[in-house]
Amino acid sequence: MSCDFAQHLNEAQLRAVTAPDGAVLVIAAAGTGKTRTLTHRVAWLALERGVEPRRMLLLTFTNRAAREMLERAMQLIGQDVGGLWGGTFHHATNRMLRRHATLLGYGADYSILDEDDSTRLLKACINELGLRDKKFPKAEVLGSVFSLAANRGADVAETVADRFGAHPVDLTAILKVHTLYEQRKRALNAMDFDDLLVNGLKLLQEHESVAARYQEQMQHVLVDEYQDTNKLQNDFVDLLASGHGNLLAVGDDFQSIYSWRGAEVQNILSFERRHPGAQVIKLEDNYRSTPGILDVANRVIAGNPEQYQKVLRATRPAEVKPVYVKLVDGGHQARYIVGKVQQLLDSGAAQPSEIVVLYRSHYHSMELQLELTRARLDYYLMSGVRFFEQAHIKDVCSLPRLAVNPADSLAFMRLMEMLPKVGPKKAQALWRDLGQHVNLRDAAKRAQLTKLLPKDAQPLWAEVDAKIFAPGEGEGDVLDRPAELIFRLVEAFYRDYAEETFENAEQRLEDVEELMTFAAKYDDTAAFLSEMALLTNLDAEQNLHAGTPAQTIRLSTVHQAKGLEWKAVFVLWMVDGMFPAARSLEEAANEAEERRLFYVAVTRAKDYLWLCQPRMRKTREGGVMLCPPSRFLAEIDPGLLQEEKAGGMGAVPRWSRW
Ligand code: ATP
Ligand code: MG
Fold first, then answer.
1. Ligand 1 site: residues with CB under 6 angstroms?
2. Does residue 182 carry a catalytic annotation?
3. Percentage with pLDDT > 70 across the chain
4. CA 20 to 30 Å from 81, out of 68, 202, 329, 612?
5. What's the burial of 333, exposed, middle or buried (CB within 10 Å: 0-12/13-18/19+)?
6. Which DSSP string do the residues of 466-480 spell out, in sequence order?
7. Of the residues 13, 32, 34, 562, which is catalytic?
């Protein structure tokens, strides 16, 4: 089988694909064929150089990307590339560790802890050390700080001090938790995700014969999305390639969006220093998007002048300009998009799988999910759990659930287990002692509950109870008003709880706000709960039947959309505080990363791009909050966009040219 490489590739791509042995860095902006270059390099090595696939290591960011690339390479080569090592960094290190774990004191059959497992283990460590206290950081929070330290290859104490900055924390106690956590994992013969990277690198660094073996085996190392590698991954790659020096890395500093997880764009910038004699190839022709979309992309990134500037040149003919549309609020935005999606489908301009809606944070998609469900348009969610199935949504709904059904033991236990010193066992005992029936309308029963609680929880719960059941504004029983009930729970208790429990509490509390807005439409708690349950079930059912994401439109965070492309892209909530996200704006470096994220969003589009800017958000009280347009919109010359006037509040959407 042969392949006409010159036919598939432009001159610069071909140079990278056919480069002689040694290090090559392809640094190029979005859609210029970096990933395509990697697959062709694999094929070229196999076909023209006779390199066996098992002597190549192809590292990518997600398993899906790895699979796609392997399939593509297989098509080009016309034979199986079965022996090729392709996958994520975690995959590769795990494969090595399975063979050599004993060298590091683990059994070869070590288990891998997923995030939930590691959080539980951390929780157990905190309890064992007697540190479970309102003021002590929660397991999730500590887990993410420990993880950041591991991925940066940084000192734990320093990372902790850095993370908690202004807040006084007991550093010694936190380090004790860390030590105990490490010991426990050892005792369990288990590694968490970070350990796979840490130990994979350690294996090569500390055991020369192992390193030599893999350097010998992996004659060619290829890395996609190189801008998002962290220190551990980078050291791992450098070490593996250090013997023969055959390393092809492709990346785009414009698209570095994981610094919050320890990624260091510096790895790209210092490549030539670390690999003297490396060839650096730039690609400038973009094959993905129309010129109108690229003009916008180039403008967007020009707002980060400190970046290594590269301009995207269009290869496609000019079509329509990207659309900028102002909308009244989130509901209007959702209806507008549903209308546009329907037009795209009806006119045959796009298949469902060629359409994506992108957003900065998962919760931004909530109204759209509701609207799509109503319109019976199936969708595939590429990120996060469905809105109503998230832990914090279930947390705050435990109170209305118990209000409606005094026999709902699950809701009762969920509620109680949020209290200090109440674990599953204690919650079970409480339930039993209360006669397996807790009617919240019965003040005597509530008093009995408070009395039965452990000392540490009693005063807290007494206060919460008083606040929730205090006579307040508004008519009728608070138990019949779901939005008010959730609001009181949040104010009396859940806000503090979330802040201590979740690393991303702010975002979760925004979700809860969104839920309250939804709940405000109901003056009957049971109706609210059943609508919620139905939406959840309907979703689940649709997923079950519609199944393959190939036939549905996608909803995704921008982070999850990296490296992918769609014919039509909608970007939601282009307002300051949402995109860019409020919490990312405290430092200039964060604003720059948000801008890169916006660049990633824009460059996913092949033909059609919509930037949606609602003017206001509904608040829980039924009022409105004005939203300033995203600062990124102001950076785009108005001439580059076609502004569309959307119809009134959800009127039939106007036709626009495709
Ligand atoms: P990203 O930065 O978003 O990951 P990328 O640089 O990896 O983008 P690819 O996904 O490899 O870009 O390519 C973008 C699109 O352009 C793909 O559809 C690809 O098939 C097409 N393409 C790339 N190079 C060429 C070429 N020389 N001729 C025709 N099409 C090309
Ligand atoms: Mg790519």
1. 9-10, 13, 28, 30-36, 252, 255, 287-288, 563, 565, 603
2. no
3. 92
4. 202
5. buried
6. HHHHS--SSSS-GGG
7. 34
Token duo for residue 422: 């109440």
Nearest CA to ligand 1 atom 15: 288
pLDDT, one tens digit per residue, over 603-612 is: 999 999 999 9
Q: Is 34 a catalytic residue?
A: yes
Nearest-ligand number for the alpha carbon of 254: 1
Q: What is the CA radius of gyration of the chain?
A: 27
- Whether pTM exceeds 0.70: yes
pLDDT at res. 536: 53
Nearest CA to ligand 1 atom 13: 33
The answer to whether 290 is a known catalytic residue is no
What digits encode the pLDDT tens for the residues 284-329? 999 999 999 999 999 999 988 877 777 788 888 877 899 999 999 9
Phi (first) and psi of residue 144, to 5 degrees: -75, -30
Which of the residues 224, 354, 484, 593 is marked catalytic?
224
Cα–ligand 1 centroid distance for 37 (angstroms): 8
Residue 557: its H or E element = strand 553-557
Q: Which residues surround ligand 2, an ion (CB under 5 A)?
A: 34-35, 563
Angle 620-621-627 from CA coordinates, rounded to 5°: 65
Q: How far apart are CA 515 and CA 390, in angstroms?
A: 12
Question: Could you give the residue ranges of the DSSP H alpha helices within 31-114?
Answer: 34-48, 63-77, 89-100
CA 266/CA 589 separation, integer angstroms: 14
Q: Is 225 among the residues known to form the active site? A: yes
Separation between Cα atoms, residue 314 and residue 324, nearest integer Å: 21
Q: Which residue has the higher pLDDT, 579 or 506?
A: 579
CA-nearest of 1, 48, 3, 39 to 21 is 48
Q: What pLDDT is attached to residue 1?
A: 63
130-134, 145-149, 200-204, 571-575: which range is least confident on average? 130-134
Q: Is 79 tagged catalytic?
A: no
Average pLDDT over residues 53-71: 84
If you take atom 4 of ligand 1, which residue's CA is the nearest one? 563
* 224 is an active site residue: yes
